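Most newcomers find our protein records easier to grasp once they have seen one. A learned vocabulary of local backbone shapes supplies the integers on the structure line. An example says more than a description, so a record of this kind follows:
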Amino acid sequence: MEVSGRWTLRTYAARALTGVLAVAAVVSVASGMRHAWTVGANDFQWSGAHLLGRGVDAYQVVIGGHLSQIALTQYPNYAPLLYVVLLPFGLLDLQAVTPVYSTATVLGLLGAAVLVGRTVGLRAWGLVAFLGLFGLAFPTWVVLASGQQAGPTLVVAVLGLWATRERWAGSALAVAVAKYSFAPLMLVPLLRRQWVTLAIVAGAHAAALVVFCMATGSSPVRTLVAPLHVASQTQARGAGDVITLSRLLGAPGALGMLLGAGALVLLGWFARSVLAEGDWVECLGVTSLISLVVFPHLYYDYCFLLPVLGCAVRRRGAARTLLLAVVLLCWYVVQIPGLWPYEYQVSGVTVTGLALLGALVVLVRVPVVAPADAVPAGERGRAAPRSAALPTAVGP
């Protein structure tokens, strides 16, 4: 009876804390949406789509310094496909469409988080706690408050790796890699030789490039590299990546890009077994970490640690502790201005990068131990269940 009483008290305490976390997450999400509706979604890519609707090349507008045509700080540093997809939003008034876009982002992120949580075996209060941690994270708030494309990109990345049919996977991944720094997502279909998926991604971007160039009269070659030029002019340094670290150490830009490409190849080779055989949550976690380690990413892009949090549920002991520590560090410490004094410094970028690398090593080297009620990996997603031969977990 005494033991039962202690466990009951512990259960009630855990549920109370989970309830507090859930309420705090709802307040945070509502605050982010309110900021976007009242102050303005300064990173919502409406301007690029709006200018495309008028036959104007938004890339050249920014490169030429005509920033008065860009609403707030909505600099177009994505591939043309994104602006073709967002064209219906661009044809509407910014103030009218922002609440619609913000609400759709919240619903999409909620669905993506539920899908990840359910796949790793979370139910009831565990799933609520999982959603609460994600909803309360600072990157999530920034995504909603600024209308950042990282949120919708995460949603389509989840759908792309979860989808069982290659045509749907290719369509979603095409939108996801409209932000070039998330190109590591394509390592999954590449290593699995899913040529239909790769063809759909390439075809979608090629078709969007044709549409964009026909509408604006721009050169295809210049349009392909324009997002990189815009990013180099407008994007700040990243928080924990190879390219940013090389810049801080004084390396030329070309050398930094070369180091980044080398790191991408090396990390892809290191994680090849997971990318070729792991289930979709593991693959998304690995590719997200590779992207964050290699390419410059600001705080909002760290919402891509969502699948890493899901992967932590599948580990035990020190592996779970390390993954949780990395996620919580990046969500609640490193990315909050003023709380982390080493932002954009060699020490801060090095610490964050090493933490992300440590999480990547755990995902690759520590086997999955799924709870008994987890959704079997092979039932959802195009990935083979890497943990199929493993016994289910015993004990807490």
Remarks:
- The radius of gyration is 21 Å.
- Residues 22-379 form one domain.
- DSSP finds 20 helices and no strands in the chain.
